[in-house]
Amino acid sequence: MSTGELRHLLLSKRVIVLCGAGGVGKTTTAAALGVAAARAGRKVLVLTIDPARRLAETMGLQESGAEPTPIPPERLFATGPAGPGRLDVWMLDPRAVFERMVFRLAPSPDAARAIVDHRLYRFLSELVAGVQEYAAAEALDAFLSERHYELILLDTPPSRHALDFLDAPGRLARFLDDRVVSLFAAERHARGGRLWHGAQAVVDRVLSGVFGARFTHELRGFIGAFGGLFAGMRLHTKRLRQRLASPDAAFLLVTSPESTSLHEAAWFRETLEARGLPFAGYVLNRSWAHDDVLTVPEALLEHTRGDRHAESAVKALSRLAATEQARAASHLSLLRRLAEHLPPGALAVAAPDTGAELEEFSGLVRLGDALAAG
Amino acid sequence: MLEALWDKRALLVSGKGGVGKTTLAAALAVAAARSGRTVLLAELSPEEEGPSPLAALVGARGVGPRVTRVRPGLDFVRLSAAEGHRDFLEKALPARWLAEAALRTRALRRFLEAGPALREMGLMYQLLTLLWRTRPDGRYVHPLTVVDLPATGHALALAALPQRVLALMPGGPIGRDVREGLDFLQDPVRTAVALTSLPEPLPVSESLHVASELRRLELPLSVAVLNRMPEDPFTAESRAALRRLLAVHGPHQGAHALARLDRARAASVRLRRELRAPLLTLPELDVTGPALAEALSEAFTPRREGARGQEALP
Fold first, then answer.
1. At what angle are helices B96-104 and B106-114 packed, to 10 degrees?
2. Is residue B84 within 8 Å of residue B129, measured between CB atoms?
């Protein structure tokens, strides 16, 4: 159903963002679609954070690189004729991206080094909500500016609400904006009225009362050094939002047949529409909504030759077939329901439960073909 | 095994995204409530906006930081960082007016919302506050709290948080409270961690990794739950016979079905062998959502009629 439309998306868009609850197979879907688009002739980048290691092995990648890694053409076109397309994959290392951003925005390399070497920086870069999301947004924006790739597939970070990658940079920027920073800064500023000084007095008492004097001192030093770096960051967020709202972009919602993930997909869709971001459709993943489920186990009966165990095996297989068929029927009706309430041009496609087949690159090729057959 | 879990004070349910962790948390809470406990089901998620699948599973109407009654013996709460910050400031600061002034200060509010790990600390603090709440007669309001943790990566960061915070700020009210919270979480008498997995190679590998991280953090892994185990209709003989048939017949989807069962069995064997914790296996059921939570909770509850039936036997 509508695999042709998905192929059309792959051939015409500049950026496709895959959203969905954790564990629904976003990374695999992004990789398979990237393979399909590259085999169809486009220059493609798949951008992903923290993927399952198995996928990295399938793609023949190192754990995480500082740069996108090209998939060798002989692997990409192992089956079928070679074409002009190419595929790069980048598993983002959020910490590396964040550190690079600090070096870019800091007034001098020494100033950047002072921040990065700070004890609190390590704490921040590991735990601050939004570092992964920030890294994804930053990298996406950079690649869209470069125009080196014709299509970028973004596998959103494994956060429950995948649109966080649009909000987190703003949150980080708000946290480190000048006013907040100056409240924490060690020296008292001349600027600001009585209200502002009142606020600073409260912050003083709260911080030392809660965190203890030593930590407060450390925190102030750090925030002082970090402050002011983030003005450039907010600008990017705005530009990225505009790009993602343009007709060049498409958001695909990946969901499994589980009700919890369907719930979230419905919520994602509302959020996308409320923000004016282009919702392009659903990928129903891990589903049995395909036509090669187990049928006619009776066909095996002709070989049983009266063997008692063989006959009971076929009987058992028939029970299994009944279960599989019931599941397939329910997933197909789920797919039809998803397809019923779509805006014009949006699609709903089912991806098979690929299980162990993704251990080889050819598995991704097959999945890509199944999703976006031409 | 389950009765022992009901006697804990906190049952933390963890697992990779998509393995059924949230449904399991709901089912465990419902089953514990049915066996007579007063249970608080708590959602701990760094993202507090959007729908709550957990609330939908148990039919909780109010989704928010206030504890709401869902059914007899079962309450629901979505933990909130802001609520935890309030609890903490009120307790840590010498005067209530100071806490209120602090919460009115925009810069401080922003700092608490977005500062490194402060959000997570707020969530943990509200959880601890709710755990310690007592009735006038001194008993706990909720003797058992079932916590639906975020997906693995986030959960491990959360679990590592107390130790990190202690390393950064050993003194002050935060240090004291964090140490108290850590003692609680590491105490196998009061706390149990349940790890959810699926009978597939990747989820099992990840579960084994989480189990070793939990050991490193000294958190008590009490039970692993292998979810959605497909029913295997074959005996050893009929399985061997089927393999022979498939070999003679040539391509047939039966081979695919058999491979899936074999994969599930291998995954289950590996988990049982390498995980040093009891393993509970749950069947693959063809329902989803609240119906699934209900069905699993029934699997956890000893059948009353069955028990009576046994008593009636000579």
1. 80
2. yes
Are residues A221 and A243 located together in one domain of the fold? no
> ipTM score of the complex?
0.80
Of the residues A226, A248, A263, the one at which a domain ends: A226
Query: Residue with structure tokens 């986030």?
Result: B154
Q: Which of A184, A317, A327 to mutate to test the interface with B (most CBs of B within 10 A)?
A: A317
Structural domain includes residue A210: yes
pTM confidence score: 0.86
Residue type, position B259, single letter: A
Predicted confidence at residue A209, as pLDDT, reads 78
Q: Do residues A13 and A248 lie in contact, with contact meaning Cβ atoms separated by under 8 Å?
A: yes
Query: From CA A196, how far away is CA A183, in angstroms rounded?
Result: 8
Name beta bridge partners: A90.
A47
Closest CB from A174, A212, A330 relative to B114: A174
**Residue B229 to residues A20, A349, B166, B204, Cα–Cα distance (Å):** 24, 27, 41, 13
Domain assignment of residue A304, yes or no: no
**Nearest-Cα residue of chain A relative to residue B200:** A355
A194 and A111 share a domain?
A: no
Residues A249 and A365 in one domain: yes
β-sheet bridge partners, residue B49: none
Q: Is B1 on the interface with A (CB under 8 A)?
A: no
A110 and A20 in a common domain: yes
Question: Domain span at residue B201?
Answer: 2-312
Identity of the residue in A50, A158, A174 whose CB atom sits nearest the CB atom of B110? A174
Q: Which two tokens stand for residue A273?
A: 């529409």
Are residue A220 and residue A155 in the same domain, yes or no? no
Is residue A310 included in any domain, yes or no? no
Q: Is residue A354 part of a domain?
A: yes
Shared domain for A351 and A286, answered yes or no, is yes
Give the CATH number, domain containing residue A257.
3.40.50.300
Domain that holds residue A220: 178-226
- Residues B236-241 have a mean pLDDT of 92
Residues 222-261 of A with CB under 8 A from B: 256-261
CATH number for the domain harbouring residue B169: 3.40.50.300
Domain count, chain B: 1
Query: Looking at beta carbons, which residues of chain B come within 8 Å of A23?
Result: 16-19, 151
Residues of A in contact with B154 (CB under 8 A): 159
Residues 6+ apart with CB under 8 A from B190: B8, B9, B10, B184
Q: Consecutive 10-residue runs of chain A (374 residues): their mean pLDDT?
A: 80 94 84 96 89 68 75 92 93 78 84 82 61 76 90 80 66 63 58 67 77 77 68 68 92 89 86 91 87 80 84 91 90 90 89 67 88 78
pLDDT tens sequence across B148-205: 998 776 777 778 888 877 877 777 777 888 888 889 999 999 999 999 999 988 889 8
Q: Is B307 on the interface with A (CB under 8 A)?
A: no
Total count of domains within chain A: 2
Residue A304 sits at the chain B interface (C-beta within 8 Å)? yes
Q: How many CB pairs under 8 A join A and B?
A: 224
Under the banding of pLDDT at 50, 70 and 90, the label for residue B309 is very low
- Tokens matching residue A119: 């004890």
